[in-house]
Amino acid sequence: MLGLGNITIPRILPLGVILLQVLFLLAAIPIEGYILHKSLKFDKKTSIFYAISINLFSSTIGWILFFFLEPILPIDFKSELISYVFFHTFRSQQSQALLIVTAFIIFFLTFIMKFFLLKFFMISLQENFFVNYKIPEDNRLKWQRNSGLKLQNTNLVTSILIGNSLSYTAISIIILLSRK
Fold first, then answer.
1. Residues 19, 34 contacting (CB under 8 angstroms)
2. Virtual CA dihedral for 101, 104, 107, 111, nearest 10 degrees?
3. Of 10, 26, 78, 117, whose CB has the highest number of CB atoms within 10 Å?
4. Nearest to 41 by CA among 117, 122, 142, 125
């Protein structure tokens, strides 16, 4: 490894993994953008912006988590991971079951991360986000607004779940096709 103080740079660059990540993003962004456009009634530009934002941020957070967790993995898992990343093969049959469990965990963590990222972006990108003024309202209007927020959250959850499911399906097909 090349040393730069406490930072080490690997001599081997996993170019295939980087290109596959770019391909996954290129597949996921239009799918999720389309779902956001159709189900949440965003315009096309806004839905693509949100899809790009949540996918880039969730991928970055996912890779950061991976690089923090990788050093504490047992040596058997590390060797299986290296074998899969560089050679697209597993050394033992037990690791395929572990891969399926890990894929489900990653799917749901990504789903939760994308939901909170989209919610954060929607709230923070409102024009009147930083304006602090109170308008007196009666209880009926407050109840209608709160029930509308519950409906919006439900619609947001289902939209993100459908988009994430479709994009993971497309990514799984890409992985299956790349193994041949």
1. no
2. -130
3. 117
4. 122
Q: How far apart are CA 86 and CA 16, in angstroms?
A: 8
8 by DSSP, 3-state: which? strand
Q: What's the token pair of residue 111?
A: 């789903």
103: amino acid identity, one letter: A
Question: How far is 60 from 3, CA to CA, in rounded Å?
Answer: 24
Q: Are 1 and 10 in contact (CB under 8 A)?
A: yes
Alpha carbons 13 and 158: distance in angstroms, whole number: 38
* 8-17 pLDDT tens trace: 666 666 777 7
What share of the chain has pLDDT > 90, as a percent? Answer: 37
pLDDT digits (tens, 9 = 90+) for 33-89: 999 999 988 899 999 999 999 999 999 999 899 888 888 888 888 888 777 766 767
DSSP 86-98: HHS--SSSHHHHH
Which of 79, 84, 108 lies closest to 96 in space, CA to CA?
84
Residue 165: pLDDT over 60: yes
